[in-house]
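Homework help board

Subject: predicted structure for assignment chain

Our instructor gave us this sequence and asked us to write out the predicted structure in token form, then describe one feature. I got the tokens but I'm not sure how to describe them. Can anyone check?
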Amino acid sequence: MRRAIDFAKIFIKRGLDTKCNTYDGNMKLQKLLFFANFISIAENGKVLFREPIRAFSAGCVVEEVRLRYKNDYVSFCRDSEGFEPNLSQEEYDVINLTAEIFGHLSARELSDINHSFSFWKKAVEFSEHIDGFKDKNLAIVSYEEMLAESANIKEVVARFKANRKEKAFKEIVNDVTFYFSTDIEMTDDMLKQLENFSRQAEDNTYTVYNDDGNMVIS
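My token output:
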């Protein structure tokens, strides 16, 4: 099993630590690691990496990665740019899902979503002393508690996959929706045909399919 820092390098290499080398960039990276681990638990029934996830006030954190980013960003970024991962298909799927679902969100938006999970709140409260001091070693989020809430993230992933599939099999041109069969690989010439057709279309929805190599609109 890979270390969390390897997956962090992939996110950095893809430029997903928006506002890099800042507090926000670090916070976003932490949330992407958290959601990647959470998606792995929900989809595959196992963690993506074994480093502990701790509950901080801004959300879940992998402390080893947070400190490397905070204290040694230039070297960390250089290592990330040259990093050539050799992931399993399962690991690639998790990383890609995380990037597609959460990569466009800001650090604060990801933090707010993170705060919606009860295991984060429970770990934060458990780490707090009466005098206000927080013990990081007591703030570890357990796998079992993440698993217990994994239905929530599983639903998010399922909804995303359904929307992605729907988008893959339709095109909207001039407010006319064309649904096409899976054996059609859309080209620029085909899109031009759809555009020309849409200008004189009488209906709002059509089906596009392949008939002996010819595109048919019905």
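Reply (TA_rk): Your tokens look well-formed. For the description, you could write something like this. The chain has ten helices and six strands. That's the kind of observation they're looking for.
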